[in-house]
Every structure is written in C-alpha cells, then in structure tokens.
From TrEMBL:
Function: Binds to DNA and alters its conformation. May be involved in regulation of gene expression, nucleoid organization and DNA protection.
Main location: cytoplasm
Annotated GO CC locations: bacterial nucleoid; cytoplasm
Protein family: Belongs to the YbaB/EbfC family.
Swiss-Prot/TrEMBL keywords: Cytoplasm, DNA-binding
Source organism of the structure: Constantimarinum furrinae
Location within or outside the cell: Cytoplasm, Nucleoid
Protein name: Nucleoid-associated protein ALE3EI_2063
Lineage: superkingdom: Bacteria
GO terms for MF: DNA binding
Record's subunit section: Homodimer.
Higher taxonomy: Bacteria, Pseudomonadati, Bacteroidota, Flavobacteriia, Flavobacteriales
UniProt xrefs under InterPro entries: YbaB-like_sf, YbaB/EbfC
Length: 108
C-alpha cells in the first residue's frame, strides 16, 4: 500500500517537473497573428508574452483605428496562445497522472 503511494508521489513530482519544463519551452513557441488586411502583425509566445508588433504606416494616420486593430489582433493572438498553452500543459499533466478512478475525464 505505501509502495503504491510512494510510487504515485514520485510520479506526481516527475509530472510537476515536466509541466515546469513545458512552461519554459512554451516561451520559445511563437504565434503570429495579423489583421485581416495585414496592416497590423503581432507575434506572441505560447506563454502570452508579446514579442513584436508591426504597424503599417497607413494605420499611424488614424489613432482610433490603430487602437481597434491592436485590441482585435492582440486578443486573437492571446486566444491562440492560450489554446496552445493549455493543450501542451494538459498533455504533459495527463501523461503523468496516476490511474485514479474517476479522474480519467479531467484532462480530455
């Protein structure tokens, strides 16, 4: 009985380390997003850190339009980054979870 618990604890610790390593790796996963007309481009990491923003000269002439473009494009990039982040972390966590009845549906 205690051997099973110790084995599970070891597996959970190993999984936690893998999750942390995955989080670090996600700093290097870049997601590019652009406005529909490509006047604004954003690059963000899977950890939702903005790496670059490219703005067309055309957008610099209209502050309100630029603000709208920034909000829409950055939000789309954050949504994509969040999806990548969650799926990567869930995959690592699911892989390392011990077989506990009732918990098999958590990471689907």
């Amino acid at each position: 009985m205690f051997g099973d618990i110790m084995g599970m604890m070891g597996k959970l610790k190993e999984t936690q380390e893998k999750v942390e390593a995955t989080k670090k790796r996600l700093h290097t996963v870049l997601i590019d997003e652009a406005s529909n007309d490509n006047l604004l481009k954003v690059t963000i990491t899977a950890n939702r850190e903005i790496k670059s923003i490219e703005v067309s000269d055309q957008l610099l002439e209209d502050k309100e339009q630029l603000e709208d473009y920034l909000i829409l494009t950055i939000n789309k990039a954050i949504e994509k980054a969040g999806a990548v982040h969650e799926s990567e972390i869930a995959a690592v966590a699911k892989e390392g979870m011990p077989n506990i009845p009732g918990l098999d549906g958590i990471f689907k």
